[in-house]
Amino acid sequence: MGHDSLLIILFKIVMVVIIIGLIVFAVCAIFRRVVKMILELYGKSKNNVTKENKLGYVDEKETLLKSSSRRWPNIKNIFKIFNKKGLSWKDIVTNRDKVRFIYRQKVWSFIKKGYEFKNILTPSELGKEVEELYKEDVSHLTSAYNKARYSNESVGINEVEMLVKKFGNKSYMTSK
Questions:
Q1: According to the model, what pLDDT value does residue 129 have?
Q2: Would the keyword Transmembrane be found if you checked this record's keyword annotation (predicted)?
Q3: Which H, E and C letters describe 109-173, residue by residue?
Q4: Is there a contact between 64 and 104 (Cβ–Cβ < 8 Å)?
Q5: Domain locations along the chain
Q6: d(CA 22, CA 20)
Q7: Which residues pair with 52 in a beta bridge?
Q8: What is the pTM of this model?
Q9: What element of type H or E holds 52?
Q10: How far apart are CA 155 and CA 146, in angstroms?
C-alpha cells in the first residue's frame, strides 16, 4: 500500500507541474500576441522607427498607409475616431511639408477610387502606375514630392501654389 500511494502522489505532483507549465506557456503566448496586436494598432512596428545612418544623417520613413494590422482593421478604425492627430492644411508650415501633404492626399484619392497601394513602389513608380490606370498626369506632383522628400533643394511658394491649383482642394487655397 505504501508503494502505490507514493506513485499516486508522485503522479499527482507531475500532473500539477505539467498543468502549471501549460498555463504559464499559454499566458506568455497570449501576452506576446496582445502586445503585438497593440503595436500593430498604433503603428509602432519595427519598420516605422527612424534610425540614424552610419554616414551621419537620419533616414526618415514615411508611411502612407498606417494600417499594418491585417487582423484588426475595424478596431483600428474605431480608435481613429478618438485619435484626431492628423494634420490639416492650416497646420502645415513649410513648403516641403505642404508638397508632401498634397502628395499623400492625392495618393489617398487614388486608393479611394480602388487603387491597390503597394508600399514597395517608389513615388516615381507609383506615379507612373496611377497615370496608366487613371489617365491623370501626376508627374509634376511626383517630381515635387521627390524634391521635397529626398533633396536638399528648397521648394518655392510658386511650386506649392501650382500644385494646389492642379491637385489641391478649395480648403487649401482659403487657408495659407
A1: 94
A2: yes
A3: HHHHCCCCCCCCCCHHHHHHHHHHHHCCCCHHHHHHHHHHHHCCCCCCHHHHHHHHHHHCCHHHH
A4: yes
A5: 9-40, 75-172
A6: 5
A7: 58
A8: 0.55
A9: strand 51-52
A10: 11
**CA-CA-CA-CA dihedral for 74, 68, 118, 138, to nearest 10:** 70
Cell (9 digits) for 15: 500532473
From first to last of its 176 residues, what are the pLDDT tens digits of the chain?
567 788 899 999 999 999 999 999 999 999 998 888 887 776 654 444 455 555 555 556 666 655 545 555 545 444 444 444 456 788 888 999 999 999 988 999 899 999 888 889 999 999 999 999 999 999 999 999 999 999 889 999 999 999 999 987 756 654 44
d(CA 167, CA 47): 30
Q: Which amino acid is at 12?
A: K
Of 152, 147, 170, the C-alpha closest to 99 is: 147
- Give me the DSSP letters along 58-83: EE----S-----SS-HHHHHHHHHH-
> Which grid cell sits at 129?
502606375
Beta bridge partners of 51: 59
- Comparing CA positions, the residue from 109, 93, 110 lying closest to residue 155 is 93
Grid coordinates belonging to 12: 499527482
